[in-house]
Structure formats: C-alpha cells, structure tokens
Write a structure and sequence with these properties.
single chain; about 90 residues; alpha+beta; three-stranded mixed sheet; 3 helices
C-alpha cells in the first residue's frame, strides 16, 4: 500500500479533490478530538484547526475513501491519480 506524504502539498491536493467534488472544507476550533466532522445533509466538512498536519491529511483521505467521487469532476490528471489510489486502498491509521 502506498502511503501519503505528510506535507502541505498533500493537504492542498486532498482539499482540491474535495472542493472539485463539491465539498466545502472549514477549519474551526471545537470540542471534537477526532479531527473532523461532516455536517449533516451538507457537503461541508469541519476539521479541527488545532489538529496536526498528519491528522488533517488522514481526515481528508478518510472522507475521500468513504465517499463516491466521480473522477470526471477532477480537472488535473495528478489529482485523478491520487483519487484513484485512495479509492482503491484503505489507510492504516
């Protein structure tokens, strides 16, 4: 299994995939420790802004893995490859 590099470029790539799929990502402070929550009946993801970079990347990758995202909505071939890899694998958390 290929692991994701833990850096800001990876975070940006995952955010772009979700944005192009129609999701809004907000970084907020809150009383949740799990890293993120998906607001009910919306495509809005709230991530704890105090989470580590690793936790933020894992949260976004988990959402991508558990969401049906059509590759056709992704405009960049590199991002399509990232999406395909995430859809075919499960993260080891």
């Amino acid at each position: 299994m290929q692991t994701l590099p833990i850096n800001s470029k990876t975070l940006d790539s995952l955010q772009t995939i979700l944005n192009q799929a129609g999701y809004t990502i907000r970084y907020e402070k809150g009383n949740f420790n799990t890293g993120f929550c998906l607001l009910e009946n919306t495509k809005t993801m709230v991530i704890n802004k105090f989470s580590t970079l690793d936790a933020k990347i894992n949260a976004l990758a988990t959402l991508i893995q558990n969401t049906e995202i059509n590759q056709e909505v992704i405009s960049d071939d590199k991002l399509k490859k990232v999406l395909l890899n995430l859809q075919q694998t499960k993260l080891q958390l």
